[in-house]
């Protein structure tokens, strides 16, 4: 395994920088392909100092660059994408990067006969679920340019599987959180906002009764899932990565109150709220990848609070979970 090389698009982002050390532990060499718009140059420099990581500062929209740098690689991890909130503000750029970028990476992988391509898809492809837990075979109803591109990416992978024999796994990430995440991350900014209020001695303010929920999955578990997908004997399918637990915003507030260690009671803002719930069916991840989550939300949130310096993560995010469809974070 020591001679195998992974091309990792978007590898300088939040999740990627948790995956790369695991790849190094398993003997891989890593080429990070990232335009560094949101990448962490200092952390990449630390990894490059090992002699087994290199950075290609480039954009997935340039198909020639993607093709050239993939030469000599055995595996590909494709994370590069425009985030969900930016995709709604600028659909043109979102389609350009997320759709064209997907195709450039997948076509090159098929041409180079890559052994396995792991794609960062998203639970956002489901839209508003009709039932819980959300299973990979459920109806898909993506509602934003980001979500639509993620679903189209899965379809493109199937095309290259049929046409060129490309081996792939699309990981549908639920609500990823953990150390190193930017405070503006769309679906988990509520965590940072609650923590900022609690550290100021203020109670979290919750719209409605706090019944809206998400499936929060720690980045350390996500990273393990990515490596498992890269090495799995079975492939050519989407796989959920979540905990299977839907944590309501009211429960999240209580967990964070305990983690911060303050004596406050959440305040509820009476109003009509669209109650949206999320929970992943993770049976396929267990069966195909031999993977299951190991970090409970209580332990994960407590660790996140410990690692976040007081006053450094204040954000004007809303006091409620977002109402737009399903979760994701890829960088």
Automatic annotation (TrEMBL):
The chain crosses the membrane at residues 6-24. Pfam families: Epimerase (PF01370). Residues 307-331 are annotated as: Disordered. It comes from the Bacteria. Coiled coil: none annotated. Keywords: Membrane, Transmembrane, Transmembrane helix. Pathway: Carbohydrate metabolism; galactose metabolism. One of its GO terms (biological process) is galactose catabolic process via UDP-galactose, Leloir pathway. Residues 6-242 form the NAD-dependent epimerase/dehydratase domain. Belongs to the NAD(P)-dependent epimerase/dehydratase family. This is UDP-glucose 4-epimerase. It comes from Longimycelium tulufanense.
